[in-house]
């Protein structure tokens, strides 16, 4: 049975805790080297592995559908170290202050951790079900840089458009979020890079190469003018899944960006006035991934790879994603899966993944400008 620990993991030994104290303030690389030198490991199979993640539907789905059958087959317990946020969890791993073997990571954390050499490179041949089952558009995405892979996806999602079907008649374009008929009821996602990304799509630009047909300066100014126009219609710029759900279920929001699985869950709860669409211009796409922490012991690394490979089995992944409410990274399907709001019948070809390197290059600039626009 899996064990969830709100304060970290049950993995650590006295020697590891002492070691962390001895090298407090040392660099990450030095810390990793010390842990490898004193941590033992290798051979015999691991009794447990520790996965860092947040709680919620993902944890519920893995606990109910994957952890126990994996333990029964492989004899390895999956313990969970809960984090309060992606940022805090990653900071702990990067500083060598989290006794975990792998982490659940979205595109930005996968990219940043790869560049920071936090995630262990994986040879695809080590995960047979990756090579044979994972959809081709989800392999080696733009946010996993280099020739090697560092994250293995098990599900994908979109930032599409939610709408009140009692107020809007089947919109198909992002331009609905600029329609003055919905003034006071438009609900965009309130982060600068998302405002740029979606607005670029609505304007027919490539959000990963703004100004490709003119100049960056000219194109980004056009985007911010368009964002400013939209703000006159906005009820709230939401910044969390809970806030998103409240806005649309309360009918305060009629149209806006949304996470497909949140709106899907709201409809399953009886909010029949809600619908979701991936607009014709495309939508921001992301994957849910597992990444291995550099420097873990060999037996734990092997067990982590076994778990990832196990999770990609059709008979395991199908019930996991059905409970999660996001489509699988593989071709496994069912009536429930094809009915998920994020489901892409083209097998992932319709997703527009973020170029995290490009976004990181401009993010400070975009965040500052977004604050200015939002404050007007």
Automatic annotation (TrEMBL):
Transmembrane segments: none
Annotated keywords: Signal
Stated name of the protein: PotD/PotF family extracellular solute-binding protein
Taxon lineage: Archaea, Methanobacteriati, Methanobacteriota, Stenosarchaea group, Halobacteria
